[in-house]
């Protein structure tokens, strides 16, 4: 009997996720080798600080401070890029792809900023890039889009892609505490970074939305071409009023495509989502993604979206796929946008006038006669029809808080409306805009 082939694996980055990958892959290695018919060897790991104590101990001769030495090592057929950021991570990924290695990455920011360059490099040099862990942690959403739902065209994808924001909004609802208090707890518990802006301002979700848009539609949408808004301005009044209307509030990524017009739009923002929708009940640090295809209809995926074990699970899934590719010579399915994929004309970005929906507007105004008439006039000037008006609470003396919902309008009209409202002398602070997610399923 011949000796099974040995596939050597190198890890660039040995923080929380890297240690989880090493630990769980070692634990499951015997079973995985039996399934794959090959030997898996965790050969080397690159770290930032050689002296730092770690939870997972590995032999000293397997640790290096030079990530590029792993990327350039011809004996390592699989390189896991778990560094984060877009500088050294890009150098490592390009170096490994240029020598024809398979790179496994959990880096959504890298893919969003440099995905086109990375996939072209892989194509040119015979490498491959696998990235299941870059979106929604332990939820196999990338495999679903690339493999399980390959027969579909996707008219709509929307989801909760950031566990930190979902944790904050969930606790605000359950405990009635303000945003700032819950955010401080999230930092203390390690759910939010010291600089929370990447999460709470929507940028982490936007990076992930870019990856999903590429998988579903074959084009890279940069974050500066999206609507990106965060959760910092959400108040208890918003949550309570949304609940009274039959909605929860979630930070959603929304990817929509009009195939008739061949137009695509990607946006990230807090959204009022009907309570009967499955994702309205996805709470805490969990993520959820709803995918609507023209063949299968709507499918929903829920699971842990972040953390050591969930992300490590997705990375190991890609490592196993990479080992299977190396053992059998069979490549992963082509994806839209890659050079080997014979796609139709790529979609263009839809103009704001084509992005329609209903809206929730909260504003603080002077408590004086005629203010509501002024607001109604501004909205009418932009053909934005008011559906309801509520004054939910007593504001500061001399002011009133107003919450309005609209009938169907569009992003261009509502932006112009809010700009004009903010200029009214009777409006005390800039209005808050939330979208109402009446998603068709």
TrEMBL record:
<dbReference type="InterPro" id="IPR016204">
    <property type="entry name" value="HDH"/>
</dbReference>
<keyword id="KW-0486">Methionine biosynthesis</keyword>
<feature type="binding site">
    <location>
        <position position="108"/>
    </location>
    <ligand>
        <name>NADPH</name>
    </ligand>
</feature>
<dbReference type="Pfam" id="PF03447">
    <property type="entry name" value="NAD_binding_3"/>
</dbReference>
<dbReference type="GO" id="GO:0009088">
    <property type="term" value="P:threonine biosynthetic process"/>
</dbReference>
<feature type="active site" description="Proton donor">
    <location>
        <position position="208"/>
    </location>
</feature>
<dbReference type="Pfam" id="PF01842">
    <property type="entry name" value="ACT"/>
</dbReference>
<comment type="similarity">
    <text>Belongs to the homoserine dehydrogenase family.</text>
</comment>
<dbReference type="InterPro" id="IPR045865">
    <property type="entry name" value="ACT-like_dom_sf"/>
</dbReference>
<dbReference type="Pfam" id="PF00742">
    <property type="entry name" value="Homoserine_dh"/>
</dbReference>
<dbReference type="GO" id="GO:0050661">
    <property type="term" value="F:NADP binding"/>
</dbReference>
<dbReference type="InterPro" id="IPR005106">
    <property type="entry name" value="Asp/hSer_DH_NAD-bd"/>
</dbReference>
<dbReference type="InterPro" id="IPR036291">
    <property type="entry name" value="NAD(P)-bd_dom_sf"/>
</dbReference>
<feature type="binding site">
    <location>
        <position position="193"/>
    </location>
    <ligand>
        <name>L-homoserine</name>
    </ligand>
</feature>
<keyword id="KW-0028">Amino-acid biosynthesis</keyword>
<feature type="domain" description="ACT">
    <location>
        <begin position="360"/>
        <end position="441"/>
    </location>
</feature>
<dbReference type="InterPro" id="IPR001342">
    <property type="entry name" value="HDH_cat"/>
</dbReference>
<dbReference type="GO" id="GO:0009086">
    <property type="term" value="P:methionine biosynthetic process"/>
</dbReference>
<comment type="pathway">
    <text>Amino-acid biosynthesis; L-methionine biosynthesis via de novo pathway; L-homoserine from L-aspartate: step 3/3.</text>
</comment>
<keyword id="KW-0791">Threonine biosynthesis</keyword>
<dbReference type="GO" id="GO:0004412">
    <property type="term" value="F:homoserine dehydrogenase activity"/>
</dbReference>
<keyword id="KW-0560">Oxidoreductase</keyword>
<keyword id="KW-0521">NADP</keyword>
<comment type="pathway">
    <text>Amino-acid biosynthesis; L-threonine biosynthesis; L-threonine from L-aspartate: step 3/5.</text>
</comment>
<dbReference type="InterPro" id="IPR002912">
    <property type="entry name" value="ACT_dom"/>
</dbReference>
<protein>
    <recommendedName>
        <fullName>Homoserine dehydrogenase</fullName>
        <ecNumber>1.1.1.3</ecNumber>
    </recommendedName>
</protein>
